[in-house]
Specification:
Length: 136
């Protein structure tokens, strides 16, 4: 989640996704059904009833930071030319990025981000394709 909200049906949604749902579902009477329960939802004057879900937001941010820390460790291992740092062809690094790792975390040596560490690392000629894939 980037911006989790709780709607009047009690469920948590990504704010932009539920607003898109509201826009698509609004009928001539102005009523909207829940995407989860299909029950009619209560609306406020603006036509929506959304409240920031701070608990989920905090959990998502914490999870992204944890993934970012692992990403930094793995990229630092690549930068340090650790044996088998790319034994999985960079699959785990790609997976961490796709899972939403915090890319702005400066946890690598010298206060660098994970990708800056990869940019500065020297890859063996046979690993250049992996480097290209990781940085794109």
């Amino acid at each position: 989640y980037n911006n989790p909200v709780v709607a009047s049906d009690g469920n948590t949604y990504e704010k932009q996704a539920i607003k898109t749902w509201f826009d698509a579902q609004r009928n001539s009477t102005g009523s909207i059904r829940s995407p989860v329960t299909n029950a009619y939802m209560d609306l406020d004057a603006a036509g929506t009833m959304l409240v920031e879900n701070k608990a989920v937001s905090s959990m998502a941010r914490s999870h992204k930071e944890k993934l970012g820390e692992e990403l930094c460790l793995r990229c630092q291992a690549v930068c340090d030319n650790a044996p088998d740092a790319l034994g999985d062809e960079g699959f785990r690094i790609k997976g961490l990025v796709e899972a939403g790792a915090d890319l702005s975390l400066k946890g690598c040596e010298g206060g660098n981000t994970a990708f800056m560490c990869l940019l500065q690392s020297r890859f063996a000629p046979d690993k250049d394709k992996i480097r290209f894939d990781l940085l794109n």
